[in-house]
Design brief:
The structure is a single chain. By secondary structure, the protein is α/β, with parallel strands linked by helices. The protein is built from 4 helices and 40 strands. Helix 2 (69-75) links the parallel strand 1 (57-60) and strand 2 (81-84). The protein is elongated and about 85 Å long.
Length: 446
């Protein structure tokens, strides 16, 4: 009996143990299923609520349900697109605080009614495209713009036509924004009341590509802005500079055209600037420059064309700048180098039909002139290596004195000056300085 009882007891224990295991497995499966369901539900709603599939397009036109851009902006959510049909929309100030796109058909005009900015961008990821934007406000205290963006990233402004705005684009503390293929025609009457076509303040990693700018104070103005890509723009007929840098290092501008401005470009108080394949044309006036370089260092000007400028390059306080493979053609002065410029290299450039190739106000220099072509060179090449056998004096008698005493320009080509130039050829020692290219090219670089 005892044995039978123990046997039954053991069977009962085993059965209980098995049931306990089954219950554990059941509870575990239930727990996992419940958690899995919760996780799945959470992920599902997260994806749905953030998915671009839920973004919508809002049409705006005179016969649409939504008849104004302002109303469409109010109805929109992040990720939406506002499609504006052809027409003139008298909107006033349009603030944008959502990540939306506003895209117009050909013939869309957005009128700011001279209130404030036409568009004020205060959200990341905003796109404006294919719009004509007119009528920013005018103020002595506030810099109103056709498109104003502040403290945003990833904004994109493309194929916009801006007219009759004080500032075209004004970007403050923006990053990774793109301004592409826009046109901005300003209304600047003078430097005080006029604004700039594209104005960047404390901005970085922005791209300014393929824009056309005219009749502003400065076509492009950059201050405390770095790591910019400025390429393929045309800036002309501006009342001050085609482009103006201030305290903006680590930038590059390539293949731009600066034409018929009061002055072409000013690069000031900056370093590490790369300037290649730009054209500085017909910036002509009493003190106009193709480019003014003021207190900049460690930069390069390469393959640029300077033609028809009063002064192609005005160099003041620059150090360690390389001028290489540039063309200086038919300017008043090719390069005017002040005495505070040191350790710069002028290499492999063409100097053709300039009144003065080089001018300076100092008698000594640490700047180097190497393998340039000078159309005034009168040396020879007996060893046929295509470089002159005797050095070329880059600065001549009158060129030096005109830099020291500019009023002497009235004597240019007078009998007195022609007589002194004849003496200089016979007795080169009368030339007061010795800037020389030791191995000038015999033929222009192509």
């Amino acid at each position: 009996m005892k044995t039978q009882f123990l046997s039954k007891s053991n069977s009962l224990d085993q059965s209980n143990h098995l049931n306990h295991k089954q219950n554990q497995i059941y509870h575990c499966l239930c727990f996992d299923w419940k958690n899995s369901f919760f996780i799945f539900t959470f992920l599902f709603f997260s994806i749905i609520t953030t998915s671009p599939i839920l973004s919508k397009t809002i049409s705006v036109c005179s016969h649409c349900t939504v008849k104004s851009v302002k109303a469409a902006i109010n109805l929109s959510q992040n990720g939406d697109t506002i499609q504006v049909k052809v027409g003139i929309y008298k909107e006033g100030f349009l603030p944008i605080t959502k990540s939306i796109s506003i895209i117009g058909e050909a013939g869309v005009v957005i009128d700011g009614l001279k209130e404030k900015h036409v568009f004020g961008i205060y959200s990341n990821g905003v796109r404006l495209q294919n719009l004509k934007i007119i009528g920013s406000g005018i103020s002595d205290l506030t810099e109103f713009a056709g498109v104003y963006a502040e403290k945003v990233t990833n904004c994109h402004f493309e194929n916009l036509e801006l007219e009759d705005n004080v500032y075209g684009f004004y970007l403050a503390e923006t990053t990774n924004c793109i301004l592409k293929n826009n046109v901005s025609i300003g209304n600047a009457k003078n430097e005080v009341l006029g604004g700039n076509g594209i104005h960047l303040w404390s901005a970085s990693h922005n791209k300014i590509i393929g824009n056309k700018l005219k009749k502003h104070r400065d076509g492009i103005y950059l201050e405390f802005s770095e790591n910019l890509e400025i390429e393929g723009n045309v800036s002309k007929e501006n009342i001050r500079y085609g482009m103006h840098f201030m305290f903006s290092s680590h930038n590059q501008f390539n293949r731009n055209v600066f034409k018929n401005n009061s002055a072409g470009v000013a690069v000031m108080y900056s370093k590490d600037i790369f300037m290649e394949a730009n054209e500085f044309l017909d910036n002509w006036g009493e003190s106009s420059n193709g480019i003014l370089l003021k207190d900049i260092t460690d930069s390069t000007l390469s393959k640029n064309r300077f033609e028809g400028n009063t002064i192609a390059v005005f160099a003041d306080g620059i150090t360690n700048i390389k001028f290489q493979k540039n063309d200086f053609i038919n300017n008043g002065w090719g390069i005017k180098i002040l005495g505070n410029t040191d350790y710069n290299k002028i290499i492999d450039n063409n100097f053709i039909k300039n009144v003065f190739d080089i001018s300076t106000n100092t008698k000594s220099t640490t700047n180097e002139f190497v393998n340039n072509y000078w159309d005034h060179y009168e040396g020879y090449d007996l060893d046929k290596d295509h470089f002159g056998d005797i050095p070329h004096k880059t600065i001549h008698f009158f060129g030096y004195w005109i830099a020291v005493y500019p009023f002497l320009m009235v004597l240019y080509e007078s009998p007195v000056v022609l007589f002194l130039q004849g003496i200089e050829k016979a007795f080169p020692i009368v030339t007061p300085i010795e800037f020389e290219d030791q191995h000038p090219r015999m033929k222009e670089r192509i």
